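Structure, all four chains, one model.
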Amino acid sequence: MVIVMQVTATDAQIKQVVNRIHSAGLKTFVSSDQSPVIIGLIGDKRMIATMPVEALDGVEKVIPITESYKLASRKFHPDATVIDVDGVKIGGGNVVVMAGPCAVESREQLLEAAALVKEGGAQFLRGGAYKPRTSPYSFQGLEIKGLEYLAEAREATGLKIVTEVTEVTAVDAVAEYADMLQIGARNMQNFQLLKAVGRAGKPVLLKRGIAATINEWLHAAEYILNEGNYDVIMCERGIRTFEEYTRNTLDLSAVGAIKQLSHLPIIVDPSHGTGRWKLVKSMSLAALAAGADGLMIEVHPNPAEALSDGPQSLNPENYQNLMQAVEQMTEFMAKLQ
Amino acid sequence: MVIVMQVTATDAQIKQVVNRIHSAGLKTFVSSDQSPVIIGLIGDKRMIATMPVEALDGVEKVIPITESYKLASRKFHPDATVIDVDGVKIGGGNVVVMAGPCAVESREQLLEAAALVKEGGAQFLRGGAYKPRTSPYSFQGLEIKGLEYLAEAREATGLKIVTEVTEVTAVDAVAEYADMLQIGARNMQNFQLLKAVGRAGKPVLLKRGIAATINEWLHAAEYILNEGNYDVIMCERGIRTFEEYTRNTLDLSAVGAIKQLSHLPIIVDPSHGTGRWKLVKSMSLAALAAGADGLMIEVHPNPAEALSDGPQSLNPENYQNLMQAVEQMTEFMAKLQ
Amino acid sequence: MVIVMQVTATDAQIKQVVNRIHSAGLKTFVSSDQSPVIIGLIGDKRMIATMPVEALDGVEKVIPITESYKLASRKFHPDATVIDVDGVKIGGGNVVVMAGPCAVESREQLLEAAALVKEGGAQFLRGGAYKPRTSPYSFQGLEIKGLEYLAEAREATGLKIVTEVTEVTAVDAVAEYADMLQIGARNMQNFQLLKAVGRAGKPVLLKRGIAATINEWLHAAEYILNEGNYDVIMCERGIRTFEEYTRNTLDLSAVGAIKQLSHLPIIVDPSHGTGRWKLVKSMSLAALAAGADGLMIEVHPNPAEALSDGPQSLNPENYQNLMQAVEQMTEFMAKLQ
Amino acid sequence: MVIVMQVTATDAQIKQVVNRIHSAGLKTFVSSDQSPVIIGLIGDKRMIATMPVEALDGVEKVIPITESYKLASRKFHPDATVIDVDGVKIGGGNVVVMAGPCAVESREQLLEAAALVKEGGAQFLRGGAYKPRTSPYSFQGLEIKGLEYLAEAREATGLKIVTEVTEVTAVDAVAEYADMLQIGARNMQNFQLLKAVGRAGKPVLLKRGIAATINEWLHAAEYILNEGNYDVIMCERGIRTFEEYTRNTLDLSAVGAIKQLSHLPIIVDPSHGTGRWKLVKSMSLAALAAGADGLMIEVHPNPAEALSDGPQSLNPENYQNLMQAVEQMTEFMAKLQ
């Protein structure tokens, strides 16, 4: 942390700031020969991060220098993490596709979707049994029944299951049925839930909040890692901006940023990211070209009948077409590097 | 809902859309003499809101027309709601101030703050016992111990207590100690928590999410109202924008917007809204001039020692100065109308 | 400027950065006893601001410390600037109202509007003769004819004239007719235009760009001041955010921020800021309560016939009602301080 | 345009709206059997777009349905536009790379950069002779001298020249030296400048404004097309969001969106889009995978000495490495389709 004093700060004010820091057991360096005076803090980073020095007299502003996440940081874990979900590897060059409907709507719909997803070559089946919805009057999901259908679809196809958990009290149930627990964008800073999935013994897919900075997102991952669960996959799914043509603005720069800052794998969800199925293929290819470790894709046997997110779901034909292109792009990227 | 067909849509595609709507028991009107063709939906609004027609062939875009919240809407409740918290009224011209430290740090700190808050003339003491924090290494709150201190402060001063609840499993405990339950910005779309506080039998202060539209915010209120709890107070606390000088951008237009769209009271939190104590007074006065039903203010006996949000907390002197101005502004606004 | 080196930076890399700075005639201080190493730059601020050190090996990030604007800064001009427009004072406690239609549409419309504006008590008549419009097919303004009508309205009413100039080649013409030149939001970083109005010998009203930070806005003012024109008035008119209920998000915190950072007066335009005439009164009062030096208001004799921005224009009755409230708020605020 | 009336609108109010529309020579359709009543407008789109009906009594909101740009629209020009710059084709499957320094700094720097750019295989040399800068104290460009160096570099290498023009009075001079005129992000809505380059007889590269919607961007293109210049290339260069890790958020979904909405080619500038040279390669590949018609890349013989934007410039080695990958990706994408 670096403290910038006001141009008009007095010697007494500077001394007060320095004393305050020393009293907390930290050391300082002071650049007294320039205006404004700058004071640096030296010592334990976690202690430094919690010093409320901005409220002291004469302080102009406080500039944080080091990030306070550690377990998620690439600095301390230079090698990319590879997550093994019963034989399916994610990260370190292993590209994975998770596909399926937005919501589990019925046994028939899910089994039909699962067969389709399997045929296309994806490794994971996605589908929500617990659906967070803006309106209390929208379809809220089949809950336990939905989990059972997901388990049945796994039996039928061999696909791994990834599904969202939205509350602490449902973590055990979802962990019993699913191979991977998904934290949705709205819950990225639901810290109790993050801690709970950190203790659930299953890999976690952590979606980025719609207004979360990359820094906050990595801190959310840190909550999970801090509970002893190192199998965390980041998922970029678009951020909220002023643009209205797309539902969100898919931030593909986040792929490279996460790779630089962290050792965790990152996949991309172009379905939620754009909200338009006609943009899903081009953004899927772009995500892989940017270096993403995989994709999460909405596909529905019949999008026009979907109970949620129909406009962004691929129909069977477009899904198969996408998967062929994904396969070729994955091969190409493997050779390019 | 209005469906705009593509300029190139065929008669068969138009017919398919109309049939799809009719099969759901809804009626349509079709403007066939203009290009593009426009199809309107008539019938139950909740059903209309869930029709995934955007995925049908030939559809250009779908435009929602009516909001799907109802209990929170002014259309159905023209009179302003007045909430009575054991004799303290909020809304309908009754202005309230909630003040106190960001976090309950110790018994001494809280009792000192409570005496200060009382002396200034506020009606509510605020203070977090459960603190949602970006980093797992930051101070997370005293939890039950903090609630006990809050209750003790109420005994000592007669102030009402408002404090945040961050998880479903803590709702009962917080409801036992507090007079009002606060839902923080990060939990505005934690729907399980909204339902839980909707059943807790205590008034709820609902903070706006940092990236929540006014429409989404009112839907979040609808979740609480839908459980039978009509004592909901909205709290504007700033939205996330590109501006960096302030911690958030306080959206005071939301005050007038909520008053037009809803019957619920709305208060403003300029401390979180700006992140700078030097802006708190001017934005407090502005909030009241905009028609807000109250303020939530961070005050700390010694901001430079605060464990969180020191830079935005008022010290005792500035708090007293603010309260005098607030009193005068409240009187002025009462006469103006 | 402070340079933060990478944790893994070598001594050679640190030395290279230091040498690069010294070779530019600047001095450094280096905190070598902490990780990461921090290098501060000492010397001429303008030179420091242009050092591309971020591209050097081993540099993690570069943090600017001092703003590079100087003439607009309060640090160097502690007293508030008061601008005198032929007897009408702005700033330093003098509140001004500029009102009128968005666009000059005809002689009759403008003269009618001017009489109305005068009667309500405003000091300035606003109205666009040159209209920047998103679409080339929208009404673009009456240009010179519009300026002549404005001059005629001044003759008839004694109101001062403020009107927008959108191109360098029109500056002389607009300066000949108007008492104050307005730079619109879209042109806030049209640097040639800023320089031109800086040399035009008339006060300038500088609107904030829809995506401009306060820092960039003050730099835009610096372009005008740097040409020798010190009569610059800032105008907050809303920034672009994700919120859709209002046309823009009016950032009233900018009022206090500009007052802290700069000596220049600042007024607020709630008409463009909200895009809804029903929010204009509450946000006008809020702006004055926040400390604004004035208001810019859209009023039209018949908003339903307006060629542009009808939805945000006040009709005569609402304008008179607003002006009465503004007068009372101005008196109240003068007594409060 | 569709008008949604208030739920409480009276028959008289509905009739007034209808009459107002009819008096302008437009037709209506009214859905009188639902609440709220909806009124559609039929007739000339440009006239419809300028009707200020939102200000009429009883109107809840107005929803635009058709875009008001026409020349830029794909609806009226289904085939992709291919622009031929003296033999170098852009669009319709022809991928182009424009590379060079941010600013022309000196004859030596530019000639060295040009040789490097040519060797890597790009077709265009970029470099600013007129530099729009936030601060008046930053380097503003060599102006005419810079244009002469660019022309000399073209002689020496055969590269085409693209360079920014920032003011109407400089259009002729820049058009004399350059093969393509660039409109920078800050000038995207400098309408006089758009009209001037529309008449200059040279292809135009139109960068997206940092807060411009895709819709506004296409309207800006419409200004140029409307002057008779059909050789317009769109350039996505990042939008302003809350994310701070990158300088801007590169919106690659805009590539697919522009392709759907318009026939104009679109290229991507990952250097400004990310502000970090370490992200340039991955985002370049992503842009091509998304379907972009080309790239604009900042490269500098010695980024650490650059007078502007050093942190985002590639050095010679990284540029050559990028160009090899770009060539392979271009080949791959050509085969994929």
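DSSP finds eleven helices and 14 strands in chain C.
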